[in-house]
Amino acid sequence: MSYSQQALDQLERGQVDEFKKTYASALRHDDDETLYNLAEELYSLGFLNQARRIYEKLLERYPDEDDVRVNLADVLIDDDQNDRALELLNEVSKDSPAYVRALMVAADLYQTQELFEVSEQKLLEALDLAPDEPAIQFALAELYFTMREFKRAIPLYLGLIKQGIPEFSSVNLVERIGVAYANAGRFEQAIGYLKQIHSGDMTPDVKFETGFTYLQLKDYKPAISLLEELKDTDPQYTSLYPYLGQALVAENRLDDALKTLQEGLGVDQYNEKLWSYAADIAARLDNEELTETYLKKGHDLDAEDLDIVIKLSNLYVKQGRFQENVDFLADYVGQDNVDPQLYWNLAVSDTHLEKYDEADRYYQAAAPYFMDQPDFLKPAIYFFREMGEHDQMMSLLKAYVKVVPDDVEMADMLAEEQLNDF
Tens digit of pLDDT for each residue in 77-110? Predict the structure, then answer.
């Protein structure tokens, strides 16, 4: 038995001290092929230094052996010696039998460094040289998947599946292509693959994507089933809660939806979007106190979230808390890109507070954005009429009658005003 085999047997038995001695003997006495095989085994077991020493010795003895050079580069990459690894890979000439493998190792390194375009160039060159090699097709598909270039990943995964390769490097390609289709917005195709996988065999990510895909297809019952299963097995998977809530709302299970969002907030209390969605469901349940509590929690987390600002302002207006609304929005109306809904809410509030000049200013600011909204136009028309702003009133009145031609009262008002103008 060779020293190399003895060393591996000792490792298997956990005899580390004996292994070190036998490994040293192997370096001195075993033939090069045996050492090459030992290096491969040691590398797979994570003994990087020992594998590196063997490859360095062999490369010194056989400087033209590019297979050894690429293997050494692989070890160096795992040992965070990337610059030295790239030097070795760049030494492999294009006419070398190891060139394609050198390209793939380099591509993998660049991908770990998030230099995705360089990685893509290496893999495309490798694919051009070996177009039928599944390992290259898979590596390129995985790169595009990582880059979220799902439409480019899909045909590569599909090609592998058509070759009878449903799994590669412990990656389930049926799962991958299903998730890729889902992320590309092609939900019908996605579910065709994802439903082939038994839920017990799904990773949490795949279970989430499958539930999400059913939700997009408005197939709510399987969406709820999968997302609830994910919640039970992995409650820390915070992304599931808003989508499970959405599916429950679609089934008119509002109490269950609110409970789900509350569970999610117990896991992820710093997610302002979750507070906002919980507030939406509380509002649908006519629980304004809870709605306000949740909106304020979300606002405390992100005061710049305009969606929450608008919802809270809308609530103040609905409840007649006009001064509170004006005070609340004071910090927002001077900013750039103010949502016009805030102007509308301030116009209503200032009108009720009898601050007519301020109300006038905000109605003027809001008007261009709501010329097709009867709920805005009608009170604004009466406001401008009271303020004696005839031209502004007529502009809005004409817009209103165009949108709501069956409103006899407003049609008569327009006719009367036009007659007076004549």
Answer: 988 899 999 999 999 999 999 999 999 999 999 9
Residue 388 backbone zone (phi > 0: left; psi -120 to 50: alpha; other: beta): left
Condensed to tens digits (0 to 9), the pLDDT of residues 107-129 reads 999 999 999 999 999 999 999 99
Q: Which residue has tokens 């539930």?
A: 211
Could you write out the three-class secondary structure of the chain? CCHHHHHHHHHHCCCHHHHHHHHHHHHHHCCHHHHHHHHHHHHHCCCHHHHHHHHHHHHHHCCCCHHHHHHHHHHHHHCCCHHHHHHHHHCCCCCCCCHHHHHHHHHHHHHHCCCHHHHHHHHHHHHHHCCCCHHHHHHHHHHHHHCCCHHHHHHHHHHHHHCCCCEECCEEHHHHHHHHHHHCCCHHHHHHHHCCCCHHHCCHHHHHHHHHHHHHCCCHHHHHHHHHHHHHHCCCCCCHHHHHHHHHHHCCCHHHHHHHHHHHHHHCCCCHHHHHHHHHHHHHCCCHHHHHHHHHHHHHHCCCCHHHHHHHHHHHHHCCCHHHHHHHHCCCCCCCCCCHHHHHHHHHHHHHCCCHHHHHHHHHHHHHHCCCCHHHHHHHHHHHHHCCCHHHHHHHHHHHHHHCCCCHHHHHHHHHHHHHHC
The percent of residues above 70 in pLDDT, for the chain, comes to 99
What does the alpha-carbon distance between residue 123 and residue 29 come to, in Å, rounded to a whole number? Answer: 39
